[in-house]
Structure formats: C-alpha cells, structure tokens
From TrEMBL:
Protein name: Threonine/homoserine/homoserine lactone efflux protein
PANTHER family from the UniProt entry: ARGININE EXPORTER PROTEIN ARGO, ARGININE EXPORTER PROTEIN ARGO-RELATED
This protein's UniProt keywords: Cell membrane, Membrane, Transmembrane, Transmembrane helix
One GO MF term attached to the UniProt entry: amino acid transmembrane transporter activity
Primary residence: membrane
Pfam families the UniProt entry points to: LysE
Residue spans crossing the bilayer: 6-30, 73-93, 114-139, 151-177
Listed GO CC annotations: plasma membrane
InterPro entries per record: LeuE-type
Location within or outside the cell: Cell membrane
Lineage: Bacteria, Bacillati, Actinomycetota, Actinomycetes, Kitasatosporales
Native source species: Streptacidiphilus jiangxiensis
Topological relation to the membrane, as annotated: Multi-pass membrane protein
Amino acid sequence: MPVSPHLFALFLLTTTVAMVTPGPDMLFVLGCGMRGGPRAGLLATAGVATSEAVHITVAAAGLAAFFAAVPVAFVAVRLLGAAYLIHLGVQAIRHRGRAPETRGTVAVDGRQAFLRGLLTNLLNPKMVTFTIAFLPQFIDPARGRVPLQFALLGAVFLVLEFLVDGTVGVLAGRIGGWLRRRRAAQRRLDTATGGILIGLGVRLALER
C-alpha cells in the first residue's frame, strides 16, 4: 500500500468527521435537492465532486502558492464566487412559488444543478488552500511515490464527498418532492433555499 496504514486510518477518520459536519457544499446540495428532487441533489453533488477533483489537481500543481503570492487574485475569485451564490439566492426568492414550467432558467433541473455545483465550488479558492493544506498531512515522503499517495487520498476524499453529500441530496429531494406538491410550502421552500444561498455568498465574501 503506497500510503502509510496509520496515516490512512487517521485520514479516513478526519475526513469522515469533516464530511458529516454541515458546510457550504452540503447546504448547497441540500437546497438543490429540495428544489429539484433526488436527481438534482445527486447531480449537484457530482458537480461539487468534479470541482473538488479540479482543486486537488491544481493544488498539487501549486496554485495555492500563487494565491499566497498574489493575494488580490484570491480576493477577486472569492468575491466572484460570493456574487454568484448571492445571485442564485436572489433569483430563487424572486421566483418563489412559481410552477417549474414558468420559472425559466430558475428551475433547478439536473444539468443546472451539476453546473451550479461545479461553479460554486470552483469559485471558492479556499477549497484549493484547504486541499493543499489538508492532504499533505497524511502523506509520508519516506514511502516514496508521493504523487500516487496524493492521488489515492484525493480519490478517497472524492468518494466520501459523494457518499455523504449525495445521501443528503437524495433525502432532501424526497422531502422537497412532497413539499413541492403544496404551493404555500413551495414558496417557503424557495425562500429558505434562496436565504441559504445568499447566506453562503455573504459568508464567502466576508471570510478572510
């Protein structure tokens, strides 16, 4: 096994705890699932996981070092991601309670859920910083094949992400499907989803 068994066990424990703790990704998937159904929840998770794979790749290539050297680039990408989340939240509230066929691009179908999950996570440079700071803690250079160790840990990270957030998305989709059959509940659901997205955007914009 290329990774130290002891470090791998610690990695599994630490990553599992981090995954089950509600965070921006989980809340985003939750909102997509409740508005678009189980399929949208799963595809939102797939979008998030795809962006995580990109983060792992670019982190290994040293993009986090670039952000550290050019702080304005980090701030610019962070604010762009925050603005996108706030935009999605405002749209959800503006179009709350409308039937899916009248919402146009505001409806959360599978394709939109995937793209939104991809974009919202890609536009969060903190994920690159987290990845490059987190994964190396569980790599043992003395065992050699460091790229392989990094790839293995990254793959496990993605699988756990998909299992946890995917489950949340499917369950939220089933609950949301029941609520969507009731117009008053639909309005409250859209308002809550929009509030979550706006809150995530504000949180991202204010983070340092």
